[in-house]
Amino acid sequence: MADILVEIVEALQLIVTGDPEVLGIVSRSLLFSGIAVVLAILWGTPLAMLIAMKQFRGKTLIKTFLNTLIGLPTVVLGLILFLVFSKGGPLGFLGLLYTPAAIMIGQAVLITPILVSIGVSSIESVDPEIMNLAKTLGASESQAQLAVLKEAASGIILSDLASFNRAIGELGVVLLVGGNIAGGGNRTDVLTTAISRNVQISEFGLAIALGILLVMILFTINIIVAVLRKANYLVELAKAPFLRIKRYRENKQ
Amino acid sequence: MTVVAELKDVTKVYGNKKAVDAVNLQIRKGEILALLGPNGSGKSTILRMLAFIENPTSGELKFQGQLVNFKNNEKERMQSTLVFQKTTLFATSVYGNIAYGLKIRKVPKETSDRKVKRTLELVKLQGFEKRNARKLSGGEQQRVAIARALVLNTKLLLLDEPTANLDPKNAGIIEEVIDTVNRENKTAIVIATHNMFQAKKLPHRIALMNEGRITEIGAPKEVFSKLSKNLARFAAVDNTFTGSAKATTAGTSKVDIGNGVKIEIAAKKRGTTVVFINPTDIILSKVAIESSARNVFKGKITEITDVDPLVKLKVDVGKSFAVQITKQSFNDLELYLNAEVFIAFKASSVQVL
Question: B88, B156, B170: best mutation site toward chain A, by most A Cβ within 10 Å?
Fold first, then answer.
């Protein structure tokens, strides 16, 4: 018991003093997951628009498949990507295995189903007449699609944040394709993998510090999501009494 | 006479239903044309084709003398705009909504600001630029939708039931705007409506629609006089009845529209007569009230439709009457389906077509 307390005190010291090792791991995590989300947005958003806005056979099948992929165990996806990136694999010639690039691509692939799935449902919840409305006002096909995307913006931002959440807290893919390399110029250890290693080598203080920071990051993102969701609601709530007075006055006239 | 748009043998099929059936129609520069007919008669489909967001299944559509290619019609869409029956607004400010089309046309910001301001004055919403468009009342929202179309000053303006769900005050403002824009800019306007009153007042020409076809077309007077001779197809329009009239000793006439319902009108008429009563001119009460209204009937509520801020009711008194009241009145009277009610309207409120 006393040992654990000592480790916790050490962990807090590491956080408060801004230990360079801790900061390095945290910033790598944020950077890799951030770039992974940007990558996923780049290919996921057009994909979501395509699925949501076009009518084609097998649409439901694709949506169901995406939903299934969300639940895919990350270690399985990690294995698949490992085989793809390994020397004998189809992309082995790129030499990406055990590099930061492999981690970012791996995380981007991992979060694509979430991003696309939430993106599709937010685009589909937009009034179908918005597209026609934009067109009647002179918009081209792509301008009209952009108008629909704008209407779905809040849902899409939520999907981006949820994806980031998933990426930064993920272990399986990062461990298998990143290799958890903790030295040299191309370090690939991030929060989750570093926690796992430090537990194995009994560096509990460092592991606890990283664990606390990871939870804090996840918590912050969830707060942002909640605030974004509530923001609209709170504005509505604040306006409600004034609206009622306004309606009353209008009716009286 | 310049023709702005022309439909030649245009048919539109959805699934196995012909929404529009071999329609020929010319829209002339500077005219207001009303498409009058019951719901589902093809009015909206014609408007959507004229706005180039729906393509004909067969037939030709010409715009300013040019055959429209529906694969590539961005140029035409710049010159024709449609205001939907169901008010649809972008989730942004009033300004953002109205300026949308101007932005697409790359109009400079200052010009855009000026145009938005002027158009808002036209629809009597001055100073509303920064308001959240979706937070406005139903009538105000529809006025924003109309302003958003007007600001573009297109060659063709299409309005789908622009006042259908509005209270008389908002409807009045919109009718005034339509009239002004047509007079000042010589904009060709096509209005789809099933409001007989509106069809009589605003347009230069009326096209009567039924089951996807245009059955009559001409000046309002002409069409309405033809109607009285050939009326069956008109029955579907709210509160329009045909019957035989007999003069009374009081200088009025009574029109027997069947099922024991006789409507008193403030004119001397004999023989087959078509009458129309505006749904807003009918007073609804739970008990018979003593009033100057010459027409009082007892009946049952058969249908209730909520179209905020109004409620539309169908009251069966032997014949079915459409009645329009405010939501407040609806709540105050505690009305419900199958409730027994009285409807009353003055002989002078009955319009003889």
Answer: B88
Cβ of B88 and A150 within 8 Å?
A: no
Q: What is the pLDDT of residue B52?
A: 94
Search chain B and give the residue with CA nearest A141: B74
Q: What are the residues whose beta carbons fall under 8 Å from the beta carbon of B299, sequence distance 6 or more?
A: B315, B316, B317, B318, B321, B340, B341, B342, B343
Residues 6+ apart with CB under 8 A from B258: B243, B318, B319
Give domain status of residue B285, yes or no. yes
Instruction: Say which CATH architecture domain A2-252 belongs to.
Output: Orthogonal Bundle (1.10)
pLDDT at position B228 over 60: no
Q: Which of A118, A78, A128 is nearest to A98 (CA)?
A: A78
Number of domains chain B is built from: 2
> Could you give the CA distance from residue B340 to residue B284 in angstroms, rounded to a whole number?
11
Mean pLDDT for the stretch of residues B123-147: 92
Residue type, A89: G
Q: Which chain B residues are Cβ-neighbours of A150 within 8 angstroms?
A: 90-91
Residue B284 belongs to domain spanning: 277-346
pLDDT at B233 over 60: no
Same domain, B203 and B341: no
Summarize pLDDT for A103-152 with one digit per residue, the tens.
999 999 999 999 999 999 999 999 989 999 999 999 999 999 999 999 99
Structure letter (DSSP) for residue B53: S
**Per-chain mean pLDDT for chain B:** 88
- Model confidence at A231, in pLDDT bands (50, 70, 90)? low
Same domain flag for B42 and B160: yes
In this prediction, residue A239 carries a pLDDT of 58
Task: For CA atoms B197, B199, B204, B206, give the dihedral sign.
Answer: negative
* Spatial separation of the C-alpha atoms in residues A8 and A6, rounded to whole Å: 5
Does residue A234 surpass a pLDDT of 60? no
Residue B70 touches chain A, beta carbons under 8 Å: no
C-alpha A211/C-alpha A208 separation (Å) is 5
Instruction: For residue A142, list chain B residues with Cβ-Cβ distance below 8 A.
Output: none
The single-letter code of the amino acid at A140 is S
Classify residue B21 as exposed, middle or buried by CB count within 10 Å of its CB (0-12, 13-18, 19+): middle
